[in-house]
Amino acid sequence: MIFEEVKKFYRSYDGKKCVIGYSFCGREIFAFHTGSPTGRQFIATYAIHGREWITARLALRHLGVGLKSGGGWVIPLVNPDGAEICNHVRPLWKANARGVDLNCNFDADWGSGRLNTKSRGGENCIGDYPFSEPETIALKNFTLKIRPYVTLSFHTKGEEIYWEYDGKGDVRGAEILAAATGYRPLKIYGSAGGYKDWCIQKLHIPAYTVECGADNLTHPINDLKKLKKCYKALKIFIDRYGK
Predict the structure, then answer these.
(1) Torsion region of 159: left, alpha or beta (phi above 0 gives left; psi -120 to 50 gives alpha)
(2) In angstroms, rounded to a whole number, what is the distance separating the alpha carbons of residues 102 and 50?
(3) CA–CA distance, 85 with 101 (Å, rounded to integer)
(4) Which end of the chain is less enclosed by CB atoms within 10 A, N or C?
């Protein structure tokens, strides 16, 4: 379903694009470039959790909104296997096909999160070691290749913006995102091993997680209109923060 939708979009996309790696089940992880190819570049990721696949459609919408300046890479479906499991087997599944929660598998205080577990399942499993999964390896290697000046991760749900980790972060970007969406900037505690956490702690760059959609929505969200407040979030952020 959503994987085929992103794949079809990839085939028709006229801009710069690439496959950054493959999931455990061999599905492509697609990346699309938008904006200027020169200068500092951002990375925006979506659907790292299977049941949050609706953010992949948000990514495709973000690609259709032109940037005034700057450029970067949009990765709509980091976890294609998890999205397929959610669509066809278990609607609340967050993890990849090996039962590892990809957003707990990065090397940022790995395994120290409040809800972390080594038991494989639909959520919270940290994996055997940091970057044990092909999806997180692919995102890690691509990030190190691009060396972005900032990263954004779009999730569902809660209408919150997380911008800090390990006492570091840039609240200015969170304030721009808050103005664009109406969401609340917050510090989050008891969480570790996420992509945002790794970018801040190990790469020393600003990184933001945007929890799209109201908290009273039910997973999995299947109506993109429920994420309407985020339609222009990427454009507004890059146009303002990238200056």
Answers:
(1) left
(2) 10
(3) 13
(4) C
Q: What is the pLDDT of residues 112-133, one digit of tens each?
A: 999 999 999 999 999 999 999 9
Nearest 5°: CA angle at 52, between 193 and 50? Answer: 70
Check: pTM over 0.90? Answer yes or no: yes
Q: Report yes or no: 143 and 203 within 8 Å, Cβ to Cβ.
A: yes
Cα dihedral: 133, 135, 136, 140 (round 10)? 130
Helix ranges (DSSP H) in the chain: 2-12, 54-63, 80-88, 134-146, 171-181, 195-201, 233-241
Q: Beta strand pairing status for 41-46 and 168-169? A: unpaired
Contact 82, 93 (CB under 8 A): yes
